[in-house]
Structure formats: C-alpha cells, structure tokens
Design brief:
- By secondary structure, this protein is of the alpha/beta class.
- It is built from 5 helices and 6 strands; from the N terminus they run ββαβαβαβαβα.
- A 6-stranded parallel beta sheet has the order 1-3-2-4-5-6, with helices on both faces.
- The longest helix is centred in the C-terminal third of the chain and has 24 residues.
- The radius of gyration is 15 Å and the shape is globular.
- It starts with a strand and ends with a helix.
- 29% of the residues are buried.
Length: 166
C-alpha cells in the first residue's frame, strides 16, 4: 500500500529501506491539472513511498517558500526514482531546473513529456545529449511512464528481498 507524503505531512517515521518516488513536474503554482493525484491513484497498491510536492494551499510567505524548496530538494536527493511529468501548454521552469540537476546524478528518472509541452524540444535534446539511457526514460504518455515506474518498484523490491536473504 502506497504511503504519500507532502510538505504538510511529516515523513520522519517512514521506513528508509522502502522504495521512494518523487513526483516532480508541472504544478504551475496550483494552476495546472492535478496529475499527481492520478499518479498516486495508479500507484495505490504498490509498496512505495510517494513524495508529492503539490500542496493544498501554496506557500504564502518567504519562509514557507524556503521550507517548500528545501523539502523538495531533500526528497529529490533521497528518492529511489524521480517521476517527472511536463504538461502540455505549461512552461514549468522549476521542473526544467530539477531535470538539469538530476539528469546525470545516477537516480533513475522517468520523464513524461506531453506532446504539447511548450519546451518539448529542449527536453528531448537535453535528455538525448546528457541522459544515461539505462536509467533515464523519456516517454509521451502517463500510461507508459507509470508502467516503467511500476517495473522499477518491482525491481527495487526484488533487490531488497535478495539482500534480506544474504
């Protein structure tokens, strides 16, 4: 059963050995469609921790913004896999920054780049040039991205189970 944590919900007691997924991508200060809820529903039966940066109420002051940014960067650094979705019609500049930060750090990265995403060419060229194609996957549909993500979750679970036998 998936566990979901947001900046408003403490993850201090979570099992650190459990596979974790960070839902990076378009939020547009809460103006975009809530694709994160769709991803969470599709992963509900998985044994996984999900870090969802989308807040019910966007940060309202400088202190809350700083806390949000630090929460996201800390969870991105600690996640087993990063799942990023870039929505059609959005610009998502922070998501592009995160893509650049994590493209070559060794964390598996699954990018769903909707066909109508404003900076699609930038994403495709950058991933082609700098992405490790063994751990960086670029697709254009949520279904394909979730399928790849579920394979990662199963692989991590298998590896964890094998470690327990040693």
């Amino acid at each position: 059963m998936a566990q979901v944590f947001t900046p408003e919900i403490s993850d201090a007691d979570r099992d650190l050995s459990q596979t974790s997924v960070f839902l990076a991508g378009t939020i547009e200060m809460g103006k975009s469609v809530d694709w994160q809820s769709e991803a969470i529903n599709l992963l509900a039966d998985e044994d996984v921790v999900i870090f969802n940066p989308r807040r019910v109420v966007p940060p309202e002051n400088t202190e809350e913004v700083a806390r949000q940014i630090n929460w996201e960067l800390d969870r991105l650094d600690k996640s087993s896999v990063i799942f990023m979705r870039l929505l059609a019609g959005s610009i998502s500049p922070i998501s592009l920054l995160e893509l650049g930060l994590f493209l070559q750090d060794g964390t598996p990265l699954i990018i769903v780049c909707d066909p109508g995403y404003t900076r699609k060419e930038n994403v495709y060229i950058t991933v082609e040039r700098f992405g490790d194609h063994h751990i960086c996957h670029l697709v254009d549909s949520m279904e394909d991205g979730i399928g790849i993500l579920k394979n990662y979750i199963a692989t991590f679970a298998c590896l964890r189970d094998c470690e327990d036998l040693i």
